Amino acid sequence: MVHVSKYLKGLFQSRKQNIERICEDVVDTDYNSIQHFISESPCVARAVINKVASDSSKVLATLGSVRLLIDEYAHLKKGDNSVGVSRQYAGRIDKVDIGQVSVYGALSTGNYYQLIDYKLYLPKSWTEDQKRCKKAGIPKERINHKDKGELALEIVKLKLAQETYFDWIGADGFYGNDGWLLGELDELDQLFVFDIHSDQRVYINEPEIAIPVKTNNRGRTPSRFKTNSQSIEVRQLLLSLPESAWENIHIRNGTSAEIKAKGTVLNVYAWDVKSYQAIKRKLIIRKTKTKNGEEIKYSFSNAFDNEFLLEELIRM
């Protein structure tokens, strides 16, 4: 435990989080001991993570509504040997670069946050190279490609199995536009409010979906679902809303002033063009004034009718 304590101190105190700098900045730290702890010592990291999640959820539950937030983070890192390093999109710099990407789960309520889980994303350039994975020490059962939505779902399922307490799940537009992930959360009966992109298409009324009937002997027999119903981008739907559709909402008290927004909630249908039916969603739209103008956020939720007030959904 001494090595654990010194290593953690180094992560917080050092200018750069590598062993050399940690040993320079933390008193009575031995390079070989820290190196052994990181690379060879039998540390059961999963047990530590699970304990943090359990304890954190109990504390945060006493402070208000608890949300499980899903997001990813890129660690810029050069070289070829660190697990998962690849040329890929890094959200923190909003461009493609070389580094590692992980999907994270965190609990939050009010102004308090706690990281409770993570899953390292393995690009296909890794999972399709067995020798490279073996050399890097990746367990055989982990050498399979999973997209970030699948990793996010793994975190949710693991927290549910551990009875980690949270009231609802939140994520940004990358996950909100993943219809498969939203459907899986529906199956788990988990309330969510996920941001979506402004070009997300929705249907005002439930679309009629079917596989077209073949009308002649030419060509292939139709096998894909189609609809004659017209969809609309949420940013275009916004323009059609009357002023009476909006309500003024108090979000929270900021450091210098009250944070307010205008909000509205609509019932819409989302269709992934693969399924035999569209899914009813709550479309939540929030408009907030900023220094640079007006910020507009769009979100999907699976909240039932009359389950939450408009102001609650807008805050979520």
Provide mean pLDDT, rounded: 88
Largest sheet: 10 strands, mixed
Helix content: 25-40%
Please compute the radius of gyration using only Cα atoms.
23 Å
Q: How many domain units?
A: 3
Uncertain ranges: none
Task: Report the strand count.
Answer: 14
Q: Class by helix and strand content? A: alpha+beta
Tally of helical runs: 11
Report how far apart the termini are.
Answer: 39 Å
User: Which overall shape is indicated by the principal axes computed on the Cα atoms?
Assistant: globular
N-to-C SSE series?
HHHHEEEEHHHEHHEEEEEHEEEEH
Strand content: 25-35%
Write the layout of secondary structure elements.
Elements: H1 2-13, H2 19-25, H3 31-39, H4 45-61, E1 67-76, E2 86-90, E3 95-109, E4 112-120, H5 124-127, H6 130-136, H7 148-161, E5 168-171, H8 173-176, H9 179-187, E6 192-196, E7 201-202, E8 209-210, E9 226-227, E10 232-233, H10 234-239, E11 247-253, E12 258-270, E13 279-290, E14 293-301, H11 310-315
Parallel strand pairs: 1-5, 5-6
Antiparallel strand pairs: 1-3, 2-3, 3-4, 6-14, 7-10, 8-9, 11-12, 12-13, 13-14
Helix pairs in contact: 1-2, 7-9
Labels describing this entry:
30% helix; alpha+beta; two-stranded antiparallel sheet; 3 domains; 14 strands; ten-stranded mixed β-sheet; 316 residues; single chain
What can you see in these coordinates?
- This protein has 316 residues and is α+β, with helices and mostly antiparallel strands.
- Strands 1, 2, 3, 4, 5, 6, 11, 12, 13 and 14 form a ten-stranded mixed beta sheet that branches. Strands 7-10 form a two-stranded antiparallel sheet. Strands 8-9 form a two-stranded antiparallel sheet.
- 30% of the residues lie in helices and 31% in strands.
- The chain starts with a helix and ends with a helix.
- It is built from eleven helices and 14 strands.
- The protein has three domains: 1-43; 44-166, no CATH class; 195-315, no CATH class.
- β3 and β4 (112-120) form a beta hairpin.
- It has helices spanning 2-13, 19-25, 31-39, 45-61, 124-127, 130-136, 148-161, 173-176, 179-187, 234-239, 310-315; strands at 67-76, 86-90, 95-109, 112-120, 168-171, 192-196, 201-202, 209-210, 226-227, 232-233, 247-253, 258-270, 279-290, 293-301.
- The radius of gyration is 23 Å and the shape is globular.
